[in-house]
Amino acid sequence: MGEGTKHPLSDTRRWFAVGQSNDPDARVAGDVAATAALKGDDARLLVVFCSHSHDLDALLGAINRRSGGVPLIGCSTAGEIATSGPGDAGVVVTALGGPGISAATASAKITGDDLRAAGAEAARCVAACSERPGGRVLLLLTDGLAGDQQEVVRGAYSVVGAGTPLVGGCAGDGLEMRQTYQLHNDRVLTNSVVGVALSSEGPMGIGVRHGWRRVGEPVLVTRSANNRVYTLNDRRALDVYLEHLDPPADVRSDPAAFTRFALRHPLGLRRRSGEEHVRFVGEADFENGSLGFIAEVPQGGLAWFMEGDEESVLAATDAACADALAPLGGAPPLGAFAFDCIARRGILGDAGIETEIARVTCSTGGAPVSGFYTYGEIARTQGQSGFHNQTLVVLALG
To answer: Beta strands 302-307 and 213-225: pairing type?
Structure first.
């Protein structure tokens, strides 16, 4: 089964359309979703979000046969987002086209632990994409299991500088946490970064909100390394975390119970730019008292424990959409991308994510929406930092 949407306000200069399929056969799903998305005969770019459970080579083959080889990027997910709502084990294909759209793609293998070099290499596609009146953005999809994703952002920033915003997310594998996949044209990649420089005659806007609030006084990160925090205020990080938040007894000894609790209690970091970034507390070592993260928590920085609920998370959804739409000056968008953290999905539950995506589509006036549930989100609109956890990032195209 498939569905396709193209906003009625799309014109001959620019258009944005989304196709979706839940068929378990990769070839069928790819063909159906691509057919639904390819509403025009002048597509400039395809963006694919799909379950890792599909035969990805077969999926790409079907999509490329249908499109005739339109430039393509994409990744595997922890759940897909389409105009009709959220889903699992599906395929979502987004097509952007018209002479008012320009796109240039690139991919880079992460060699060793040099994520910065991979981010820089992927960002070099910007040079092949001339800037149009509406501006230019670099969309990155990366392997969230490969190390400190902030290094990918730093590498991209070193190439594009402050004038080009960064957006995107980290590929998922349905919470198996084993291996994610990145897609570029007809290739299925692992341990890689794929990117597209996108420029439009119409305006583009980015919204970034998380919905978490601070709990108690700030703490000082006194020892951290390799995405682990060992001490806070010169004491074992786990002990300080538990004292501040006073969780149920099982959280203090059961790793699974700790992870469930930590979904609702991330760490907040204050950046020099004034932005507050969120870090998901992925796990705890009950023997040495350290906390594990999927990105850097800088030693010597101030941090806050945070909490949230369905109401605060949905309020952040509304705010992210409003922020993304503001640069469009009241004009309806052609479409929007949503990069939503899998941890936020865990907070909202099945009914809550239906409500969340309904709010996104309502905010966009029914314009096509495409996205996925991520292992981390990318959004840099100021400064060099731009990697987030437990955050919603929305990119709206006017």
So the answer is: antiparallel
Residues of the chain above pLDDT 90, percent? 81
Q: Order of strands across the sheet with 166-171?
A: 101-109, 192-200, 136-143, 166-171, 377-380, 387-388
Pairing of strands 43-50, 72-76: parallel
pLDDT digits (tens, 9 = 90+) for 27-41: 999 999 999 999 989
Measured between alpha carbons, how far is 159 from 140 in angstroms, rounded to an integer? 13
Does 361 score more than 60 pLDDT? yes
The token pair that represents 114 in the structure block: 């040099």
- Does the pLDDT at position 275 exceed 70? no
- Domain boundaries defined on the chain: 2-209+312-397, 213-307
Half-sphere exposure of 173 (CA within 13 A, CB side): 14
Q: How far apart are CA 311 and CA 260, in angstroms?
A: 18
**Angle in degrees, CA 358, 142, 372, rounded to 5:** 15
Q: 260 pLDDT band (50/70/90 cuts)?
A: confident
Q: Cβ contacts of residue 292 below 8 Å, gap of 6+?
A: 227, 228, 281, 282, 283, 284, 285
Digit-coded pLDDT (tens) for 131-164: 899 999 999 999 989 988 999 999 999 999 999 9
Q: Is the pLDDT score of 300 beyond 90? A: yes
For residue 341, give every residue at least 6 positions away whose Cβ sits within 8 Å of its Cβ, in sequence order, or none. Answer: 280, 373, 374, 375, 376, 377, 388, 389, 390, 391, 392
Q: What's the token pair of residue 156?
A: 């991209």
Residue 275 CA to chain centroid, in angstroms? 18
The secondary structure of 371-383 as a DSSP string is EEEESSEEEESSS
Tell me how far apart the alpha carbons of residues 247 and 263 are, in angstroms, rounded to a whole number: 12
Contact 197, 382 (CB under 8 A): no
